[in-house]
Amino acid sequence: MQQGSRCSVPGQAPPWCPGHCFWVIPSWLSTMSLVWEWRPAVMLAAIDCADEANQQVCADFGITGFPTLKFFRAFSKKAEDGIRITNPSATVEDLRHAIITNLEQSQDTWPPACPPLEPASTDEVRTFFQRNKDQYLALIFEKSNSFVGREVALDMLQYENVAVRRVLSSEEELVEKFGVSTFPSGYLLFRNGSFSRLPVHIEARSFYTYYLRMLSGVTRGSYKLNTTVSASNETNTSQPKRADRSKVYVADLESTLHYSLRVEAARTAVLSGDQLATFKCYVAMLVKYFPGRPCVQTYLQSLDGWLRNWTEPELPRSALKEAMKNNRDASHPAVLPTNVSWVGCRGSEPHFRGYPCGLWTVFHLLTVQAAQSGPDKELPLEVLSAMRCYVRHFFGCQECAQHFEAMAAESMDRVAGREEAVLWLWSHHNEVNARLAGGDTEDPKFPKLQWPPPDMCPQCHKEERGVHAWDEPAVLTFLKAHFSPANIYPDYAE
Ligand code: FAD
User: What phi, psi does 353 have (nearest 5°)?
Assistant: First the structure.
């Protein structure tokens, strides 16, 4: 073992796992995703001890029951060095706290990548900026038995320009200096000596972490798994206008429709069978629910009418391309712009964001419009099924299509209402965001977040027993407003 401490858990319930095991494993896996950001101070690994191929390694580690979590201090060399943290009724919060407690006991084997977790003293705070280059120091004031400060410090480990320290309520001089009256509470100190209270909706870990990650000048640092450095970074000095992320833009929607209809779906020489049915269904869905400009709606209606009249089993691309041309008839224009221009979906470099961002946006918009326009229980899967088929048959990213199909196969059929469909797409998009966070495809200027973040919708977030939770009715209300025609804007906000 090198720099980081390590925890290993079995990743999957063996077929014969007893009852409590099935209950406990999701929370353990959830722990893994929650401490993912604590790399490289704490590295997590899962070993499936039910797999015969792992029999020897599990025997070496002394694993006799499932699930078992073992903690290895930094620089551990032997399997026997693992400290067993096994409590079948442990919650996600308990497991995180157990990891921190073991980490703190490491002392002389403190992982070099781990920030200090002990409480800060008045002296340390006073001289912090003389000793460090950080732009900000965040202080979490808390009672001695609280883990919030230590968790936020670890959550911010991969971020540069900000340090986090916990201060105990017993540190009277600092408590008095900052006028702290509630615990926990967070304060932000600046290099010029000024400070302010962290303006969070709830005094809790996920809210502090989110706020600190969004601070100007705070960036995710060099610790990224599987990253490649772009050579063009330094030469690209143009500063595009920044879109307002609380808005939906016409340019993104129309660029997406143009690309999906005229480029992506028209790639094959001939459409037939399921592909043809999917294409017809996609266009019909757009006619029904896409809140476009009049000339775009007319365009979609005329394409839909043309497709309905096409009764041959095969549709050659040449015929389709002809049917998809704009008609600029002055009295009744049917026009879908043929240029691709991204506003809300514009990436910091051309290979980031763009079309996949637009496709998510279009489908969220369609699920919301469908929920607003018909009885909730009628055809709940209308839009989701059209999306599933579109992604399966046409979406250019095959790996994305396979992932999406796996999620759809698992739970889409259980969606029983149109509002549920809105939430299904939202929660599964967040699943994708979580999977991709910190990876190669993430635009560093637009980090993958659980969406909507607290500053866009504070009421969407809550914490239950120290774990972040969504207030789904509030999320639904937010999505209905965000993906509504009233929130679609023609261009950049000034
Ligand atoms: P996106 O994730 O594209 O989001 C677009 C916009 O939607 C955001 O700007 C935000 O305004 C809003 N938004 C974000 N989250 C939500 C939410 N939960 N609910 C509602 N609105 C939200 N890329 C891969 O590398 N691997 C994959 O497996 C993969 N699978 C994909 C599957 C599908 C069906 C699609 C459409 C795309 C997939 N992608 C995948 C691409 C990836 O999800 C992003 O679209 C892409 O990386 C661009 O990201 P972005 O930052 O622009 O935001």
Answer: 65, -125
Residue 428 alpha carbon to ligand 1 centre in Å: 10
Which atom of ligand 1 has the smallest separation from the CA of 344? 9
Q: What is the CATH number of domain 5-109?
A: 3.40.30.10
Asked casually if ipTM beats, i.e. exceeds, 0.95, the reply is: yes
Residue-wise pLDDT for 336-386, tens only, equals 999 889 999 999 988 899 999 999 999 999 999 999 998 999 999 999 999
| Overall CATH class of domain 242-494 | mainly alpha
Reported as a single tens digit per residue, the pLDDT across 407-443 is 999 999 999 999 999 999 999 999 999 998 888 888 8
Whether 389 is catalytic is no
Q: Predicted confidence band at 405 (pLDDT cuts at 50, 70, 90)?
A: very high
Distance CA 143, CA 472 (A): 31
Nearest residue (CA) to ligand 1, atom 24: 400
Domain with CATH 3.40.30.10 in the chain: 5-109, 122-219
What the block records as the tokens of 312 is: 């041959």
Within 6 Å (CB) of ligand 1, which residues are found? Answer: 245, 345, 353, 356-357, 359-361, 364, 391, 397, 399-400, 403-404, 426, 429-430, 432-433, 436, 441, 443, 446, 451
Cα separation of 40 and 399, whole Å? 28
CATH number of 122-219: 3.40.30.10
Q: Cα torsion for 128, 130, 132, 134, to the nearest 10°?
A: 80
Q: Is 17 a catalytic residue?
A: yes
Alpha helices in 120-204 (DSSP H): 122-126, 128-131, 148-155, 172-178
pLDDT digits (tens, 9 = 90+) for 116-137: 899 999 999 999 999 888 999 9
